[in-house]
Amino acid sequence: MYNRYIKIVFVLVILVSCGCASTLKGIAGRPSARPAEEETHERVFTDRRLSDDYDGIIILHPQCDFDSLNLPDEELRPYFEGKGCFFTEAFSRDISDALKEYGLFEDVYIEDDIDLVEPGQLILRTSVTNPVIQSVGGGWFSGEEKWRLSFVLDGTITDATTGRLLAKFRYTPVVTLHKGMIKPAISRGGKMLAQAIAGFLRRIY
Fold this sequence. Notes:
The chain contains four helices and eight strands.
């Protein structure tokens, strides 16, 4: 009788433990509002500091996919159609300036494509996808028209000679565009992203 009682208690403990584990797993695995593949992240795939092996970096102009972008106002059209990426050249320069400000790398190059590489160089590639522009009310009394731009910026850092992936990142910024002040807002958004990329490189350099 005593042994039977012990067995029953043991089984109950196991069942309760499994139930708790299942509950905790369910809470931890709760999905976020944004799909997991779009979450901001930074990943490193090397145990070595970049400065141990690299003293130069090639920044490629970002690739942009705006084919599916629905523009809610004609004023936005010049910034998102027929010009490739809306901050292509400025963005690459902003990254270069931020890297130089941090004193990272002896040589920093900006290129449209890869032509000639040397040992000790990295390649930074970025791409802009999933852009969405939504109208945002300026408030009942202000009458100001503005839009909210969101997109996904992916980037990779690879060895220029071997192509080995050393690090990657994804940022999901949101930029508010005010009517009549679109270009300054885009410029500020690009600079903030450039600082984020340079900061990531600084931490692993």
